[in-house]
Specification:
By secondary structure, the chain is α/β, with parallel strands linked by helices. 40% of the residues lie in helices and 17% in strands. The strands form two sheets. The protein has a six-stranded parallel beta sheet with strand order 8-7-6-9-10-11, sandwiched between helices. A five-stranded mixed beta sheet has the order 2-1-3-4-5, sandwiched between helices. Strand 1 (2-7), helix 1 and strand 2 form a beta-alpha-beta unit. The model has no long low-confidence stretch (mean pLDDT 96).
Length: 275
């Protein structure tokens, strides 16, 4: 039995358990996957992480709002992930090892959706854990400019500083508002929780959408967020958070198990009606 889990808040609707169990079945592996919510477990994040480490878990996914907090507990071998400062995948061993499959998964999802096209100038809302991963992936994908807005200006500035050290040639801008971030942008990225189940709204006012090329929402529960509905109605090509979820899950499963699942077979299994 390969015992896995996900630590996060507001994760009751997560499809990660299904993805990893189905991937395991497709690869002939016995995989369990639990949802571990700190409040429900009556433990804070640090205590719950230690409990999982000491109770037979092979690895964990980490989600909002703990992706940055967990890095202090980990060895992080990949320079880009160490630089971005957030991890969503942990492998237990003598020392827990951290990875970021949001970073690799977004790059894979973008390439699958848009082929060899470059992101162009991008406006990003949110500089938290998933925002960091997507921003570094956008840098690798050849974004021409990245303007970041976060109400926490220090957090946005920290991300810009890290990106500037990682890729000095990238045009980086600390935006004072989402309107300013959108000036000249071809792509729009929501890396905030807005639109997630129970958190209504959109980071991008509807009047800012027209004339852009593409939009991505990191939220995937629900898949069809207000932001993506409005972006599609405005004529933008959209990349859903489900695609990030799917590709990061494939990468995480490979890290957890050493096995590579057939993406087409996994997609069919996830979309099949429940028996």
């Amino acid at each position: 039995m390969i015992r896995l889990g996900l630590i996060g808040d507001n994760i009751k609707q997560s499809q990660s358990p299904a993805l990893h169990r189905l991937a395991g079945a497709l690869c002939g592996l016995d995989v369990s996957y639990d949802l571990l919510i700190p409040a429900a477990q009556h433990r804070d994040f640090d205590a719950l992480f230690a409990w999982a480490r000491d109770n037979g878990y092979h690895g964990l996914n980490i989600t909002y709002p703990y992706k940055e907090r967990v890095t202090a507990m980990l060895q992080i071998p990949q320079p880009a992930v160490a630089a971005l400062g957030a991890c969503n995948t942990v492998i237990f061993g003598d020392t827990p090892v951290g990875h970021n499959t949001d970073y690799s998964g977004f790059a894979a999802a973008f390439r699958q959706r848009f082929g060899g096209a470059k992101p162009g100038a991008v406006a990003m809302a949110g500089a938290g854990g998933v925002g960091k991963a997507v921003a570094f992936a956008l840098a690798d994908l050849g974004a021409g400019r990245l303007a970041i807005y976060d109400p926490d200006t220090a957090r946005a500035q920290a991300l810009i500083t890290a990106l500037a050290a990682y890729q000095p040639s990238l045009d980086l801008r600390l935006a004072p508002s989402i309107t300013a971030a959108c000036e000249g942008a071809r792509g729009l990225v929501n890396s905030t929780p807005l639109g997630m189940g129970g958190i209504n709204g959109s980071a991008f006012p509807e009047h800012l959408l027209a004339g852009r090329d593409w939009a991505f929402d990191a939220v995937y529960t629900p898949v069809e967020t207000q932001f993506l509905r409005e972006a599609q109605a405005a004529g933008l090509d959209i990349l859903t958070g489900y695609e990030l979820f799917f590709h990061q899950g494939i990468d995480a499963f490979r890290l957890f198990t050493g096995a590579s699942v057939d993406p087409a077979a996994l997609r069919r299994a996830l979309l099949a009606p429940a028996a």
